[in-house]
Predict the 3D structure of the following.
Amino acid sequence: MSTLAPRGLTWTVLRVHRRALLISGAFLALAAVALVWLRTEGREAATSPTSCATPARPGVPLCDAAFFQAPLSDFPGDMSLAATVIAWLPLAVALYAGAVLFGGEMERGTARLAWTQSMTPGRWFATKLALPAVVITAGFSLLSLLYRWARGSAPRRLSDRWYYTDVFVATGPAVLAYGLLALAVGALAGLLVRRALPAGGIALAVTGLVMVLCERWRSDFWTPVEQVWKNSRGELGNSAWQLDMGLITPSGRRIHDCLQPGVPAPPGCYEARSARQWYALHHPGDHFWPIQLVETGIVLALAALATVLAFRVLRRHHA
């Protein structure tokens, strides 16, 4: 028999959760096919005209009945939907890990049965954690890479930017980090609560809370850039994530949104008008990777902390 064949506890875990493996494998295959199709749709959208003219001009077709009746591609909407599914997929991992993978086994007593079969609790927990982690790493990495590949087929036709929450998470290693965090939090909740549904709910809530908090503070993960214009307000590029814009007073104080229509002018606003200096605080497009890596590091650190706490809980109950 080959030494690479799954044996012992590894084979047992695979057999017990084979249905989940089949479902997740089918989902991954369907998602991969969908993203490949989106790549094709994006190429068609990149070459299709979006405007017409009467009379027709070079590169701009005639505004006739055929133009208006031609089916329009919903590539931007399809890509937004794909980003949402990939970005929030860790919530499904949290629910499964808490309710089935750990909480369910603790509630049914199958974990204790395994510990009586010449298997230490630590080895049981490590195997139950390592195998799903491998699946999550491979699956989430593939989905993220395919999404970036499909998104690159027609970037100018997309309505969402790199800093949109779902797009940001789906296009980088952050989605993988959230998947591993969901697994670790699910394991910790399962060992603490020892009941399937409460553990799944707690893991779902904690993972979602971390995702929301990271979204709230994402702009602070890297130092933004300040752009200053004199005499008139300038424009930032389409790839810039604008955080703030306003006027600068002669004393150097920044007045946020000083002259918006229908908004009362704050103190010092009219004084700043005479200075004729505008400022904008933003993240340029090349800040994507620094912010992405910082967020990934924070989430992985939380996942490691949850894993350590889970081992401590297991050791405390079975010392």
Observations:
- The chain is about 60% helix and 10% strand.
- The CA atoms of residues 9 and 123 lie 9 Å apart.
- Residues 75-221+288-317 form one domain.
- Confidence is low (pLDDT under 50) at residues 1-5, 65-72.
